[in-house]
From TrEMBL:
GO cellular component: chloroplast
Species of origin: Gossypium mustelinum
Family matches, as InterPro entries: 3-OH-isobutyrate_DH-rel_CS, 6-PGluconate_DH-like_C_sf, 6PGD_dom2, 6PGDH_NADP-bd, HIBADH-like_NADP-bd, HIBADH-related, HIBADH-related_NP60_sf, NAD(P)-bd_dom_sf
Domain of life: Eukaryota
Start and end residues of each 3-hydroxyisobutyrate dehydrogenase-like NAD-binding domain: 173-292
Catalyzed chemical reaction(s): glycolate + NADP(+) = glyoxylate + NADPH + H(+); 4-hydroxybutanoate + NADP(+) = succinate semialdehyde + NADPH + H(+)
Pfam families, A to Z: NAD_binding_11 (PF14833), NAD_binding_2 (PF03446)
Xref: Gene3D superfamilies: N-(1-d-carboxylethyl)-l-norvaline Dehydrogenase, domain 2 (1.10.1040.10), NAD(P)-binding Rossmann-like Domain (3.40.50.720)
Ranges of residues in domain 6-phosphogluconate dehydrogenase NADP-binding: 11-170
Protein name, UniProt field: 6-phosphogluconate dehydrogenase NADP-binding domain-containing protein
One MF term in the entry's GO annotations: NADP binding
Family assignment from sequence similarity: Belongs to the HIBADH-related family. NP60 subfamily.
Active site: K179
Amino acid sequence: MLNVTDKFSGRVGFLGLGIMGSPMALNLIKAGCDVIVWNRTKSKCDPLISLGAKYSSSPEEVAANCDVTFAMLTDPESAIDVACGKNGAVSGMGPGKGYVDVSTVDVATSKLINEHIKARGALFLEAPVSGSKKLAEDGQLIFLTADDRSLYELVSPLLDILGKSRFYLGKVGNGAAMKLVVNMIMGRLRILLSKKVGLDPSILVEVVSQGAISAPMYSLKGPSMVKSQYPTAFPLKHQQKKLMLTQDLRLALGLAESVSQSTPIAAAANELYKVAKSYGLSDEDFSAVIEALKAKSQDTA
């Protein structure tokens, strides 16, 4: 059973060991947690197994053998499949268990998973994260949580291992909505204009980082964009879905449309990400989208 203590004493499951999930699971292991892992590609589990994690062959088995199960999947479809599909985590859930989805999904997806988890008598917490690979490695993520307050309190020690701050936002869907709004803002980072008017973009990054509109994203992504080097922390392809729409922007635009909110800048950014995909930038960091902007600028010169 789950216990409210300064240190979480239950067994923790972790589903999805990609760029974000793997360092998150690793930090739980390093903190002394009893962790069971699963990933579609088992080889991604091997480094964690060598460090003490246990392995189960399906999300259902992980959930059945753990007090709380975390899921970090790449898109809404994967989140639904891993939770609700064949041998999904829902089948292993029951009273006294908790499911914490830290994936970036739309509000409807979060509500759907919540319904399936609750139907099994278990607790659900949506907890998408704001942060990149480096912040995941350093345990400096920000959690945007919603739904079951009691589960939030119970897993707070785990969230504090994985992140630097956590926010409880009320009813299910609010966490997903907050994450999409954050990503919409993040997707509008631009430094190309400074080059076109003859300014040193590296100085622009420094000025912005010290000014009133300072944001860690400028300091984090600005230098690599200036150098045209894009070490992958958040792959551009993870933002892409059907019809070449970028996943996070697509979801954010859908959220805005659901409340009749006009978002012309975000819509324009979405079009730019579509161009970036056509230039073969899917495996680069999302900041490589500036290369698409450069190409469009040259085409119109």
